Amino acid sequence: MLAQETLRPLANPAGTAAIGSLMVEPEAAVSGAPLPAPEAAGFLLALLLLSPKEPKEPKGK
C-alpha cells in the first residue's frame, strides 16, 4: 500500500499563496465550435424545395 505524505512549504504566507496559484490549473477557454444559426434553417428549406426532382423515365413506344 502506498503512503502519501503531506509536505508543507518552508515559505511565508505570500510565498505559499504564490505556490498555490502556480499549482492551480487555469479554466479552459470557451470552445470556438460553430453554433447553429437559426437563419440557416430557412436557407436549407429553400434549397430543399428548389432542388430538382428525380427525372422521369421515358415512355416506351
Quick structural summary:
This is PEP-CTERM sorting domain-containing protein. The chain is mostly helical and 61 residues long.
Textual characterization of the structure:
With 61 residues, the protein is an all-alpha fold. It contains two helices and no strands. 0% of the residues are buried.
Strand and helix map with partners:
Layout: H1 13-23, H2 39-50
User: How many β-strand stretches?
Assistant: 0
Q: Return Rg in Å.
A: 32 Å
Instruction: Please give the largest β-sheet.
Output: none
Which percent range fits the helix content? 25-40%
List keywords for this structure.
PEP-CTERM sorting domain-containing protein; about 60 residues; mainly alpha; 2 helices; rod-shaped
